[in-house]
Amino acid sequence: MKEKDLDRWVDRYRKAWESNDPKDIAALWTEDAAWYRRPDEPPVTGRDAIVAAWLEFADAPGETTFEYEVLGFGDGVAFVRGWTTYLTNPPGEFSNLWVIRLEKDRAYEFTEWWMEKPR
């Protein structure tokens, strides 16, 4: 796995974020993946459960902008810093940190931290 493969995965993640298409979401994960929506909570486990949980809290298409940078990558583990802006009323800005463990082109573990920027 190379950094360009990680960039493709993040691009696919963003596509799924915008489309909320169950096929786009499912294509990101291994069958037995674990998604830690917060590092201090138990994970959502299994591709089908991840798709269902994602759709439960889905953002509407066009509701956000997102930028990111790769902080580190090696041995199938990636560290990504992101910035999300919600264009909703009221608008909001978040900083994100992702730890992604990849197997080929799918994540088998994904942990995210997100912090709202004070207004």
TrEMBL record:
Domain of life: Bacteria
Gene3D superfamilies noted in UniProt: 3.10.450.50
Positions of the SnoaL-like domain: 10-107
Protein's name in the database: Uncharacterized protein (TIGR02246 family)
Source organism: Kribbella pratensis
